[in-house]
Amino acid sequence: SNDHIGEQARRYGTATIGEAVARLREGGLVAVPTETVYGLAADSTNAAAVAEIYRTKGRPDFNPLIVHAADLDSARTLGQFGDLATRFAEALWPGPLTLVVPRNENCPVAAAVTAGLDTIALRCPAHPVMRELLMESGLFLAAPSANRSGGISPTTADHVERSLGDSAPLILDGGACETGIESTIVAVDNGNYRILRPGPVTQAELEQIAGKPPTIADGGKIEAPGQLASHYAPEKPLRLNAATVDDDEYHIGFGPIAGNRNLSPHSDLAEAASLLFAALHDADASGKARIAVAPIPDNGIGVALNDRLRRAATPV
Ligand code: TXA
Ligand code: MG
User: YrdC-like domain: from which residue to which, for each copy (predicted)?
Assistant: First the structure.
């Protein structure tokens, strides 16, 4: 029957959208593909389900979660979108942009999601499987990256399994993430904006939409509580700007510096972003004791790549 064909088309790896919706409605977790990285999703209005996200990741409870919404209209039921936030959302959603806006008075998400802040981080993702899940479930899905806290973000279903091990939940396998690096996080208040985490949406794009540059975050204060200096860390020591390599190093190359594995032989930063986390996973799994990464230009999405690499190179 047609129904049967529909079910077949909606199977992603071992799970169907229907199974994922059922799991989420009963307060369970589901690992979901997005265009940036895989997320560990739960119903954001269910406090027990949200607690299970923190437990599964080993995530400290002061680090709030991003809530994923199907579109701007539904996001408005959770947070306040002034003119500038509306302009960003209309220009860049669905896509790899998270907006931190004032939380609505009657916002139904569990308190633990925002870790006691009066703001909420909202994103409307572009991945077709995630969009199908949001629309089919009608839920607002809290979803951090689907890795153990502090580890490398997963860009394939296999990474999710390797990072979470026995705690890995049902996984919707949507293939490798196209963008490969976490969303740009922008805080908007009183007509100004600050970049809390560099990502696939560049500062130049934001400036063009806003018609002005971002204000600079005041020094020292951690604005996105998850942005600790040591983060996204592989298990092995990592060295940056490595044009040459030692015998005991796995070399991640870029452009003319070939390496054991090259992020983009023709120096395409978007291609490099899509492969960076997979390269770090492979370097961890290799026989080499240490990791070295070739220099990566610090412009466009390269700013986000270098941000993740610097954090990965910082000892815990
Ligand atoms: O691309 C992404 O953003 C992925 C996919 C799954 O959507 N998610 C992701 O989530 O990277 P996570 O939990 O790994 O990073 C969320 C970041 C953390 O640094 C957290 O501190 C910050 O968002 N955050 C969440 N709510 C915030 C708020 N109200 N104010 C400031 N930062 C916030
Ligand atoms: Mg993360």
Answer: 14-201
- Which residue has the CA at smallest separation from atom 13 of ligand 1? 144
| 98 Cβ below 6 A of ligand 1 | yes
Q: Is 2-210 CATH 3.30.230.10?
A: no
CATH of domain 238-313: 3.40.50.11030
Instruction: List the residue whose alpha carbon is closest to atom 3 of ligand 1.
Output: 183
pLDDT at 314: 81
DSSP assignment of the chain equals -HHHHHHHHTEETTEEHHHHHHHHHTT--EEE--SSS-EEEEETT-HHHHHHHHHHHT--TTS--EEE-SSHHHHTTTB---HHHHHHHHHH-SSSEEEEEEBPTT--S-GGGGTT-SEEEEE----HHHHHHHHHH---EE--BSS-TTSPPPSSHHHHHHHHGGG--EE----S-SS-SPPEEEEEETTEEEEEE--SS-HHHHHHHHTSPPPPPPTT--SSTT--SS-S--SS-EESS-SS--TTEEEEEBTTB--SEES-TT--HHHHHHHHHHHHHHHHHSS-SEEEE-----STTHHHHHHHHHHHHS--
The per-residue pLDDT for range 99-134, each reduced to its tens digit, is 999 999 999 999 999 999 999 999 999 999 999 999
Ligand 1 centroid to residue 28 C-alpha, Å: 20
Q: Taking 90 as the threshold, does the pLDDT of residue 73 lie above it? A: yes
Complex ipTM value: 0.99
